[in-house]
Amino acid sequence: MKTKRSERGFTLIELAVVVVIVGVLAVLAVVGYRKMIDSSRVTEGSHMVQAIRVAQETYHSETGRYYNAGWAKLCPHNVVVGSPPSKTKMNWAPGCNGGTATWAPLPVHTDGPVLFGYVTQGGTVDNAGTATPALPGSLSGATIAAGTVPNNVDYYVVGAAADIDGDGSAGKNTVIIGSSFSNELLTYNDGQ
Question: What is the pLDDT of residues 154-187, one digit of tens each?
Fold first, then answer.
């Protein structure tokens, strides 16, 4: 007796094709999910840089100058600027020394541990266009472009750096820069 094709079921090749298609879709989903998670981690850095900018403006309104915590160490990780930042979250520590002074005078608070390390430097640009202290040139492999620097003004620069993908490469850290020279945040190597 002859059976109809519709009664026999699937062939091995048909099942293999379905498995391959499901595998490809799973890989695409995992990659997309990873990018979404890394992107959400960048949000922490952006929010903290904005909070530090507000703290700098508050400090300036009270004292007439911007606060200089230094550009030597990423806080709260206490890692020297230029080396890879920590891959683990740490509690914010206002007593962390950025190289020049502690962060205690700036009213910056977080709801929990932070992944990014932060630096901030304040100073003055004189009539000749010379910044004291000198404007920082880079942070964790990213060149800082301050844009056009006006003469005879106080300034601050805020930086955040994190090794979001955990590869340990200093040149591929996610870096976020904010300053008194521009309302924009500059983000380098988003999600890396």
Answer: 889 999 888 887 776 666 788 898 888 888 888 8
Q: How many CA atoms lie within 13 Å of 83's alpha carbon, on the beta-carbon side?
A: 10
Q: What is the rounded distance in angstroms from the CA atom of residue 151 to the CA atom of residue 126?
A: 6
Instruction: Tell me the whole-structure pTM to 2 decimals.
Output: 0.76
Domain ranges of the chain: 10-188
Distances (CA, A) of 159 to 111, 119, 120, 137, 176: 20, 5, 6, 11, 6
Backbone angles phi, psi at 62, to 5 degrees: -90, -30
Instruction: For 18-40, write each residue's pLDDT tens digit.
Output: 999 999 999 999 988 888 887 77
The maximal CA–CA distance of the chain, rounded, in angstroms, is: 101
CA distance 4 to 144: 72
Which helix H or strand E contains 184, and what residues bound it? strand 182-188
Length of the chain counted residue by residue = 192
